Target: Myo-inositol-1-phosphate synthase
Amino acid sequence: MRTGVWLVGARGSVATTSIVGALALRAGLAGPTGCVTELAELRGPALPSFADLVFGGHDVVATPLVKRAEALADAGVLPGRLVAALADELATVERELRPAPAGGSQADRATATIRDLDDFRRRHELDRVVVVNVSATEPVARPHPAHADPATLRAALAGPEEVLPVSSLYAYAAVTAGCPYVDFTPSTGLRLPALRALADERGLPYAGHDGKTGETLVKSVLAPMFAMRHLAVRSWSGVNLLGGGDGATLADPAANAAKVESKQRVLGETLGYQPQGGTRIDYVESLGDFKTAWDLVTFAGFLGTGMRLEFTWHGCDSALAAPLVLDLARLTAAAHAAGHRGPLAELAFFFKDPLAAPTHALAEQWTRLCEFTRRLHAGGSDDQPG
Model:
């Protein structure tokens, strides 16, 4: 099943690491550590192989992909030997990267994006193309009348006003081109009613939002523990220190607020109440592509006895995210092939703020993901949302 993976933000750290990782796996130069779909519980014939994945994408920067990979190797994110060994393969992917459409109306930019997607699919004789957004976090979109239904949206896009945030414009183009869409960021993407309706009209599956790679991953394990043991969480406060491009983007207060909102939701929805405290995200340039999170949890046990828990998470954002991007592309392609449409709630395991998910508890999400994947491998299809 030849599958295109079109990355929005294709020269960014996460995208570059994803591409290098897939090429290394294809060449047998690295193992699949971190790739959930390579676990025995999920591996099977419904998923496209790494050899079946063909990469392309858009970006606003023009730095050659091999140079981005070399910079990540210098920063300790990628093994330098892999970048050197895969230079020719990276040059091949480089030829599939396009500048982000600019100028004209949003309708013009959407048309240019659709043209790139159609050309990519046709030239490589792909069965399908999955569009994955791994670009910078956007501020929360302001409501607009055009967000309500597809017909109003189409008319508004032709005007001079910027109706959609960039992530949603890409989602619109992806759906119009018949491509499933995955949002690995907390940006608006397909969350607008008009875009969800358009995806439903086209019978397409989609997934998101905001990949769960660090502090929130730990929260999704610990919060159910407190709930199941009937312990009262009094406060939960976290400090996140990020470097790299993501950290620089989140220095903007509006983008920072969108990210914090995504990270906080797991507690209220898992515990059934919102404890005191919050999450703070600070940009620390010297951390590069690495991030550190420190959390303090205070809670009460039997007879009100006060206790506390602290944890520190230090990780490499791109190395944590990239295998999940590959997992999501493979799973979404398989879901599309099986006839699934609407929000893929079964992929909640991968997201901080998952669409249509009945739970934020990681263990329950894992069970649902395994059941979903077993159905895919058994040839199961679904013409109902999710």
Remarks:
- Residues 3-210+319-377 form a domain with the Rossmann fold fold (CATH 3.40.50.720).
- The longest strand covers residues 232-242.
- Residues 345 and 356 are 5 Å apart (CA to CA).
